[in-house]
Amino acid sequence: MSYERGSASFFHRVLLPAAVCGLLLAPTGCKSPSDYRLEADNVANSIIQEKQVQALGRAQAFSIERPSDALRRRVLVDQNLPYSSKASLGADNLEPIDHWPEEDYPKAESSVDSVITSENEQALKLSLMAALEIAARNSFEYQTRKEDVFLAALDLDLERNEFRTIFDGQVESLISTDSTGDRTVSGTVSSASLGASRQFDNGMELTSALAVDLANLLTLNNASSFGIAGDATIAIPLLRGSGRHIVTEPLTQAERNVVYAIYDFERFKRVFAVDIASDYLAVLGQLDAVRNAESNYRSLIASARRSRRLADAGRLPEIQVDQAVQNELVSRNRWIAARESYGRSLDAFKNSLGLPPDAKVELDRAELERLTERTLRIMSEIIREEASVVDENQPGADAPVELVWPGREGAGPLEIEEPVAIDLALDNRLDLRVAQGAVYDAQRRVVVAADQLRAELTLFGSAELGGRRSVGSANENDATLRFDEGVYSALLTLDLPLERTAERNAYRSSFIDLERAVRDVQSLEDEIKLSLRNKLSDLLQSRESFKIQAKSVVLAEKRVKSTELFLQAGRGQIQVRDLLEAQDDLLSAQNRLTSSAVSYRIGELELQRDMGLLKIDERGLWQEYAPQADDDVQK
């Protein structure tokens, strides 16, 4: 086609198709980095909600954005704590570097948090529920586990993309000069192409492309020619690599991996919440030990002073005064050690919450007082029982000794029968579901490995229409798409399975992987049963220890009071050493009582965790299992 045929004809036949093709390709490059990020967020969150319903039967709010980073920042700033750089305050506080793709991201997300009470360098006062919520929003490990779920969702999207129609396009503009011949030939070629490819779940692959060219000579007769070409190819596997179960295996595994990631995260949330609660109660137990040590220290100071006065009055030997002073020094050391131990455990707890260890934090003693309410009730019952004991009801010194094993009296609601606990765990443990799923995954890998042993028989087909144009063909007529003038071909290839050593070994290895997966299920089942048996045993032991230590505290308090009275009355058979020993025994009994109360509560939480029945919401707060509710449903 020559340019002299008319500019209007040239525009409609050449420039217009090229422009249309360019417009078709342009939108693929019009998105900003922010658009791509938001698109990835929307896709991943949609997949996560879809898989949450599949895995858990419900969708929960899920986000990897961390507006609660403001809590860590507020603690650092409000409490005037030292930090090394702006990174300490969060990614949104960083200075953008050169060529940063998004001006306003990461950005500070405002979040109203009721648990933040730190103002003017005052300490954060945390209840147990507030600690759970803070940990869920600020713990580094918690955030990493959430990101693992998000990344699994992105991996699934990538696998799904393998079975979508994929478009690609390209626009080129070439100018060239050839001076090797008798005449110098110069020209331009403008080209645009648009292609599409699709893989189907049966293994068939289809690709197609359409290209348009405009070749113009800048020398000679300024000739120009319009080229248009279309082609399509198809490949269909007939033996190895065919079948939906083989082709979609990576997609199937990616789908299941998201479910596994959700199961793992839910299991982690339960373990994490129990760990936080255990640490919280353990720190309160340390605080109670400080209080007991302080009370004991004050008591021994008073005893030492009293001994000094009695010695000055000639009523007590000097050696007993020295004993009292020595015990006062020992108690001071215990008091200091208890306070330092409490400080270290509190710092470690703050670290587990994702807060700086030098943050000013106070725990709510009411949590421990709620546990000790039961202590006071049992101690009151013990005192009443002792007051009502009649001597003749006591067994004689020569009566046979009968050992009574602890019964169900005073047992908590979670001290359920062992078979019931095991059945509940086998039905609800999410990590067991993952292990069981891994067995099915291993079975599928055996099938895929067996498929790789087969011969490879593939049918290829192609079609080419029209023609491309270059500077060398600018003098030719315009190309057209005519199906009656196309080039068509078909090819059948057979790759015989003569060499399959690698595939053979992979096939054999797949059975070993299957056996390992089966053993993992069996091993986890045994671990679950062992853990439940131990937890139920721990509950019984903590309950009985609680009762025993309550009696010990009552007896120790009675012993201290009576020894003090006898010592003040000048009973010769009572010495300062007796009072000191009674006070030491009281301190030990008080600490053991608190420890057993905390151990029983932690045991209840761990049992629910190990049965898979402790539910954790998106804020990190729990809903405990109520055995009575199950009984009511069954009735």
Structural account:
The chain has helices at 7-25, 33-56, 69-78, 128-138, 140-161, 244-247, 249-312, 318-353, 366-387, 418-428, 430-451, 501-568, 576-611, 627-634, and strands spanning 124-126, 166-178, 185-199, 205-217, 224-237, 361-363, 456-467, 487-495, 615-616, 622-623. The chain is α+β, with helices and mostly antiparallel strands and 635 residues long. Among the domains are: 3-8 and 164-199 and 204-240 and 456-496, no CATH class; 29-96 and 112-161, no CATH class. The chain has a 6-stranded antiparallel beta sheet with strand order 2-3-4-5-7-8, with helices on one face. α2 (33-56) crosses α5 (140-161), α5 (140-161) packs antiparallel against α7 and α9 crosses α12 (501-568).
Summed up, what is this model?
With 635 residues, this protein is an alpha+beta fold.
